[in-house]
Structure to design on (169 residues):
């Protein structure tokens, strides 16, 4: 069972310690937590790429998660000033654009999923960003930015359509 966000908000340092000792996040090297402005939980992580990608010199990523009291999560890549990102929100936040809120819940992280699935989503997103920088192609079905006229973006590939059915909430 994933670490619930209410426990992360109550004790960010304990949540970071839990992540390090539970070994449920692949590639997690370091984690620290503290309480930030407005009672937000600030979790800083160091994440290694998968071995095959490490051999291709994919970077070790440092990221800060800001988890607000309303369970909104923002992910900020650290040490990334010189890199471009395809899916990053515009200023002032500049956090990663991880998902489109209008999309099918089966394909989105929701707060009830807990901390570890959010970190996995962020880690995967950072790997996809690096793949995009290297190839010019997003390595999976890519949701466009902006508001869809129909509330959610159409699922274009049979694989994504199948996963939406598989993970229906």
């Amino acid at each position: 069972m994933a670490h619930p966000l209410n426990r992360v908000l109550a004790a960010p340092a304990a949540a970071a310690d839990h992540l390090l000792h539970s070994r449920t996040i692949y590639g997690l090297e370091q984690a620290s937590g503290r309480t930030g402005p407005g009672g937000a939980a600030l979790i800083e992580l160091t994440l290694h790429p998968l071995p095959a990608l490490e051999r291709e010199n994919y970077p070790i990523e440092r990221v800060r998660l800001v988890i607000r009291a309303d369970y909104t999560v923002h992910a900020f890549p650290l040490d990334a000033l010189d890199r471009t990102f395809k899916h990053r929100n515009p200023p002032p936040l500049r956090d990663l654009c991880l998902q489109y809120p209008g999309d099918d819940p089966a394909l989105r992280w929701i707060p009830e999923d807990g901390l570890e699935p959010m970190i996995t989503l962020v880690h995967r997103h950072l790997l996809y960003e690096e793949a995009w920088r290297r190839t010019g192609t997003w390595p999976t079905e890519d949701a466009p930015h902006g508001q869809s006229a129909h509330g959610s973006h159409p699922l274009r590939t049979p694989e994504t359509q199948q996963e939406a059915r598989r993970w229906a909430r």
User: Anything to note?
Assistant: The radius of gyration is 16 Å. Helices lie at 5-10, 12-22, 51-55, 115-135, 158-166.
